[in-house]
Write a structure and sequence with these properties.
With 358 residues, this protein is mainly α. The longest helix has 29 residues.
Length: 358
């Protein structure tokens, strides 16, 4: 909005030329989102408390989590609203990839809201039935995948980290692959959201990493230099991701231990879906598994636990996802969270190095 309104004035006032630069708008999208979070965060908490929209604790979690019952949830609504407002203010609204990511994110947000509505309003801690939730996620992800597949000049070639010449063309199989990446990212983030600040930290780190990825992918000179796919218009996603970073940091202010606000599925599902969609649009799908390694570890811990128990009758971990395993091993919650953050930062740095190491 500001780009359309103010950039045309650069012919008269040279100062407005700064709105041309994606880097400038990305920074201020993040700052705007952060400031709005600080301004409305406490009011959101007060409203959620007034209407008693608190967390419903499942029975299959460590007993220490029972103290969290009633903590205001649905904080994801605040995150989504802030991301949307900040993106609309600072992004180029004529960009088709931007709208695709925004619509996909909001689609996952609706699914998460339905799930949280069942938990918080109907007081059913199980939420939306898994098959319904997964089915709706696949529908939203399929929309994004089909739109990209039929987008002019969009390639179905897969970029593989560390390999310069190994670029398989998936053809029509790119559609189910893209669906898997988007839905997988959404559910992996959702599984990680189990401790105060645990999910939002890696979300922030991953979003910051893809700010760089999206920018260089959409920059013809940089993409040619790094020998990565050039996607015309993908750089504008950096502004969206800047909004995600700012909104995530603002939410972390209230979600840090001991949390006074939870994001709920209305936050974790769309944030994961957004990261997955950006990874697909920027043609760095496989890189997401490395950047978001924490999410992968959490998801795989659940898979291994279920497979092991059903096949052998034995558990691999004391409890899954794996952060609960460390809780039962005696690690304090803040220690688990901070150590996972450290690992997330290390993985992000390693991931960004792959842009050059090819």
């Amino acid at each position: 909005m500001l780009y359309e309104l103010l950039y045309p004035l650069h012919t008269t006032y040279s100062f407005f030329n700064v709105f041309r630069y994606i880097t400038f708008r990305t920074i201020y999208a993040a700052v705007t989102a952060l400031v709005i979070s600080f301004l409305i965060g406490q009011q959101v908490i007060d409203v959620l408390r007034r209407y008693q929209l608190g967390q419903q604790i499942r029975e299959d979690v460590p007993k220490s989590h029972m103290d969290k019952s009633g903590t205001p949830t649905l904080g994801g609504l605040m995150i989504l609203l802030i991301i949307l407002v900040s993106t609309l203010l600072w992004a180029d609204l004529n960009n088709r990839y931007l709208w695709l990511v925004v619509l996909t994110t909001m689609g996952f947000g609706l699914i998460g809201f339905w799930d949280d509505y069942i938990k918080c309003v109907r007081k059913n801690a199980q939420g939306l039935r898994p098959r319904y939730k997964l089915g709706l996620q696949i529908v939203v992800a399929a929309f994004a995948a089909f739109m990209l597949y039929h987008s002019p000049a969009y390639s179905t070639i897969l970029s593989v980290p560390f390999f310069k010449k190994f670029t398989p063309d998936l053809g029509m199989f790119y559609i189910p692959f893209a669906i898997f990446v988007i839905v997988g990212a959404s559910n992996a983030v959702n599984l990680t959201d189990g401790l105060d600040g645990l999910a939002i930290g890696p979300i922030t780190v991953t979003a910051m990493s893809y700010v760089v990825v999206a920018y260089v992918t959409g920059h013809k000179i940089f993409s040619e230099y790094l020998q990565i796919p050039y996607i015309d218009g993908a750089g504008e996603l950096s502004v969206f991701l800047g909004s995600v970073v700012g909104a995530s940091l603002g939410f972390l202010w209230f979600n840090t231990y001991p949390a006074t606000l939870f994001m709920g599925d209305v936050g974790s599902l769309p944030l994961g879906g957004a990261l997955g969609t950006v990874a697909v649009v920027s043609k760095h799908e496989l890189l997401l598994a490395l950047v978001g390694g924490i999410f992968v570890i959490e998801a795989l811990s659940v898979v291994f636990q279920v497979v092991s128990f059903k096949s052998r009758g034995k558990r691999v971990f004391l409890m899954a996802p794996i952060h609960h395993h460390f809780e039962l091993k005696g690690w304090q919650e803040p220690k688990i969270v901070v150590r996972f953050w450290i690992l997330s930062i290390v993985l992000a740095l390693l991931s960004l190095s792959t842009l050059k190491l090819r």
